[in-house]
Write a structure and sequence with these properties.
- The complex is a heterodimer of chains A (282) and B (262).
- With 282 residues, chain A is an all-alpha fold.
- Chain A has one domain.
- In chain A, 68% of the residues lie in helices and 0% in strands.
- Chain A contains 13 helices and no strands.
- The longest helix of chain A has 25 residues.
- Chain A is elongated.
- Chain B is α/β, with parallel strands linked by helices.
- Helices cover 39% and strands 23% of the residues of chain B.
- Chain B contains 9 helices and 9 strands.
- In chain B, helix 7 links the parallel strand 6 and strand 7.
- The chains are: A mainly alpha (282), B alpha/beta (262).
- The interface between A and B is large, with 41 and 44 residues.
Chain lengths: 282, 262
Amino acid sequence: MATAEPLTDGTGPSSAWPAPPSRASLALGDLRQGCSSGWMWTALAMQDIRLRYRGSALGPFWLTISTLIMSVAMGGIYPHLFGTNAANYVPYLVTGLVLWQFVSTTIAEGCGTFVAMESVIHQTPMPFSVHAFRVVYRNLIVLAHNAILVPFGLLLFHVPVDARLLLAAPALLLLSLNAVWVSLFLGIVSARFRDVPPIVASFLQVVFFVTPVFWAPDALGRWKIFADLNPLFAAVDIVRAPLLGVPTQPWSWWVMLAATLLGGGGAFVFFARFRSRIAYWL
Amino acid sequence: MAYLRPRDLSVEFPIYQGGSRSLKKALLAASSQGNVARDAFDRVTVRALGQVSFDLEDGDRLALIGGNGAGKTTLLRVLAGIFQPTQGRLFAAGRVSALLNPSVGLDPDSTGRENIILRGIYLGIHPREMRPRVDEVAAFAELGHFIDLPVRTYSAGMMIRLAFAVSTCVPTEILLMDEWLSAGDAHFLARAHQRMADFVRSSKIMVLASHSMPLVEEWCNRGILLEQGRVVASGPVRDVVARYREREAAGQSTAPARQAAG
């Protein structure tokens, strides 16, 4: 599969060889190959899901049930805590939890993008980006199972649905795009530094409570800027607001676009620099 | 036409020990100008391959010969494109497939059938193309009803048979093999031999790393003798095998000296 340098055949004196391809072009080629082998990572992600829930009758719906239980429990108590009514709070909570689950598990599993695939990476040459796409696609499948709760939550509490709903699709696409660079980046860092996954796991736990997932950013009053500039809130907000038929927070799309450009660009530079080292670190 | 031309390939492995795998220690070391945890980036590198060059064209069957730790498997991994060489270049054309340690890639929780499909995916073969081959692979591996049971329930022999059968079911242009056929029972080896012969014949280039001189002399026409990552002899396989035997015999007396030097 991997042909190292197809344009040169290596005959003749070394002075006649063209310069080796740059790291950036190799990384770009890796990503391009990864994108075009969509069948590969979709099939691998499906196998991951099949395997993870083998022997359980409900399969990935177990997660849906655990999200349901959490929604019922928090939805029963928190409206009293926050002094709002359930009709406003529960749809906000359910969509928030479902999306947060996607965001947080993708970040957590992103740490294992390469480490978990060690035996494959040491056996068969394949584009490294395939492993990142696989992580993201696998979590999108889980999200699809969890998302069943969303229409129930919306219909049960008579949330008005309008044309804004359509915005959820590009928002989810942007979110997935960010998930790819996060998996790539965390995958590389975790391959080199083995204490990164536990650091990320405890970080995620803290972030869940300080990000407006189950509470509204307006509650912060004049400190709302901390919610507005939190990219993880923006990630949830751009998908959740269209579902609930409310406008997104003014900053959310901008924060997400900035995260895509800066994070994606940074991760690409990082990937180009360390791509050739990944196999050595595992 | 397929070819494989490494030019001055060198590989150095970083050896990470203790603190050098910790981000916390690495950051501490950076912020304290090396006073605290100054060994965080205390990396040791091991040179696994040094300036390896050769030319393989259609029809070449190369044997990689050398003792344990001579760099045979590392060289196969570089040729396969798994490790990028730290120095030197690799010019290659042709579809490469590497049979390094096939039982490692099997997923113990997936069934035999799923593993066949899975291995196909890793080799770049669409499940659609792989499905028609499943029965043939299962029959060759003599799995019977075990095909739909998780691989963790298989005997060691069944795993090797499955791995071998699935790895050899799709022809390839450049075949890179680590020695692993030696496992398995005699009955299977006899059948594997025939299949292997067909598989090797259909490939344009083969590189086989092995300790077994009879095996190497049977399958290969050229040889390379590796010692501590360097090519110490190359040429027709018989000559290289003879050199290896000489050095082995002489090595009994020089081994302690080499150890002291290394």
